[in-house]
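Hey L., structure's done. Input below.
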Amino acid sequence: MSADPSSAVPILLIGGYLGAGKTTLINRLLNSELLPANTAVLVNDFGDINIDEQLIRGGSKADNVIGLANGCICCSIADDLSSALEQLRKTSVQRIVLECSGVAEPAKARQQCHYPGFSPQGCVVLVDATAHDDRCNDKYVGALATTQVQQGDLLVVTKSDLNPGFCLPALQA
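Output:
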């Protein structure tokens, strides 16, 4: 693979806090005609058992799904991501969708995607309209929930039908 950035395989990150709908969005994309057949999906789950990977394998027609379990790609399993990218380098994959762990910071995840022959394309962060306000006010996870939204390139509000009055507060850099 060439070192030319324009020929690098793009990586689209899908982030958002736990339960925001990342797996559902990815399954819908994979079952539509929107993504080319040569798209690989990397699924990062924080726990020992990668439940999201199983849901994507079982809920879509995707055949190039790689699980990255037992940690977050931002910090503890960056080597697993490098190994997965190295494995994909040997294939004809032309695009990667990376589902980040629900506790990942998009900027840190994006940094891990700078790997020879690959380049982060952007980060879509899902925001759960039913839980976002409570999460942002939580003393344990509030800073992370806020940071995820601030670091997204595109924000997608989910579950708005369950909270039609939801309004995302103005973001401060």
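The radius of gyration is 16 Å. The first strand starts at residue 9 and ends at 16.

-- N.
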